[in-house]
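Let's practice the habit of predicting before peeking. Look at the sequence and jot down your guess about where helices and strands might fall. Then scroll down.
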Amino acid sequence: MSDIKPAIAVASLDKHYGPIHAVRKISFTVNHGEVLGFLGPNGAGKSTTMKMIAGFLSPDGGTVTVNGHDVVEDPVGVKASIGYLPEGAPAYGEMTVQRFLQFIAEIRGFKSQARDVRIAEIIRTINLESVRDQTIETLSKGYRRRVGLAQALLHDPDVLIMDEPTDGLDPNQKHEVRTLIRNMASDKAIIISTHILEEVDAVCTRAIIIAAGEILFDGTPEELRARSDRRDIDDAFRRITTNQTAGYA
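Done guessing? Here is the structure:
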C-alpha cells in the first residue's frame, strides 16, 4: 500500500448560508500530478468549496487538509502551500503590474535580488512585459486575469486552486494559459473550476461535477464522455446535471 498522502484531502465538507445548504458533506482527494476540473452549473457550490479549500471561508463541518495542513487549525500553513486565483482576482488598481507583483513577492517572503529575479521570470511566463509599467485599473479584463494568475504562481506553489482561470481571455491567451497548466501539471496538484467544458479535454486528467452542493460525477474525461450516447462532454454534463437546482456560489 502506498504511503503517499494526497496534496488535498476533503472529507465531509459542509457549508450553509442561512437556510441554503450550499455544500453537502462532499469528500474527495487530489494528488500531485493531477489536474482536477471542478465543474457544475451556476450556483452549484464550486466557488464556495474552493474558498473553503483555500482557507478563505470557514466550513460548517468536515475537514480540509492541504499538504498536511488543516485549514481550520493551520490556515497560515495552508495559504503558504497554495497559489489561489479567486473569481474576479481582486488587486490594487492604482498599482502598476510591476509594483503589485513586488508587493505580493514581499508578502511571500522574497528578498531583494531573489524577488526581482522571480518577478522577471513570472512576467515572462505570463507574457506581461508589455504592461508591466501600466496601472492595473487601466488593463483589459484579460490582462487583469493574467496579473491574477501571475500572483498565484509567483512563489511556485505545488498546489494551485484557480477559479475560472481563462475567464476574459481571448483564444490565443486561453491557449497560452492551458499550455502553462499542462506544463506545470506533472509535479503540482491543480484544481480549476470552469464553465468551458472544452478545458476538460484540454488540460484536465480528472473531472468532478457538482450540483446543488453534491458531487454527481468523479472520473476521467474519458469516463465523463462515456456518459453520453454521442460521447460528447457537453451532452454528458447536461445529462448529469439535469433537474438539479441550486441558488448559491
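How did you do? The longest strand covers residues 20-30.
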